[in-house]
UniProtKB/TrEMBL annotation:
Transmembrane segments: 15-35, 42-64, 76-94, 101-120, 126-149, 161-178, 190-208
Superkingdom of origin: Bacteria
Family recorded in the similarity comment: Belongs to the UPF0126 family.
Record-annotated Glycine transporter domain positions: 20-91, 104-178
Organism: Pelagicoccus enzymogenes
Keyword annotations of the record: Cell membrane, Membrane, Transmembrane, Transmembrane helix
Protein topology in the membrane: Multi-pass membrane protein
Keyword Cell membrane: yes
Primary location group: membrane
Protein name: Trimeric intracellular cation channel family protein
GO cellular component: a single term: plasma membrane
Pfam family, one: Gly_transporter
Amino acid sequence: MLVEILAAFEHPQSLTYYLGQVGVAVFAISGALAADRKGSDWVGVLCLAAATGLGGGSLRDLLLRRESVFWIADTTYLWVVIAATAFTIFWVRFFKPPTNALLYADALGLAMFSIVGAKIAESSGVAAIIVVLMGVITGVAGGILRDVLANEIPLIFRASEPIYSVSSALGIIAYLGLKTFGCPPQLATLSGVAIIAATRFAAIIWKIKLPEFTIRKR
């Protein structure tokens, strides 16, 4: 089964592209769910979904000085955002979203976008530490933008929130490590995505958190 899946994405860039598409869709859904909580109209929902789905990758492309921002070079991503937004709008009209749907959608988007961002940075020839940083930025920036626009404290800055950016960094480091030891690129990519999603899901379920920073009062 795994061999068949990998064969479908024989060229590593194909897997990166489709992970990016799915990541945009999932992040757009999380943005639309956040807008629904705020009672936004359809235009507001689309704007928040687009900011969430496209924000992280846009910042990455600007920092790496790529020739063009990804969704300008390939407008398919815009249609993915529109389709994901329309799906969410009609879904919530007839069905109640599952508990923590926003968190789980965000976790999936984080997993896919982090690895996609890392692979794009890697192809730019930057140092490994920058690959990790660009992957994390790609994964978390859209969610930060979503929460700021929705007038919420971003998930990454909440002391009460289970580990977030740490999950992203761990998965990217695992991806780089697997490739270093000769693992096929496609398998390393899927493994990195799985590790990020699994650690984030586990953190949500069992409320695994980092120690809170406090300044002792004298």
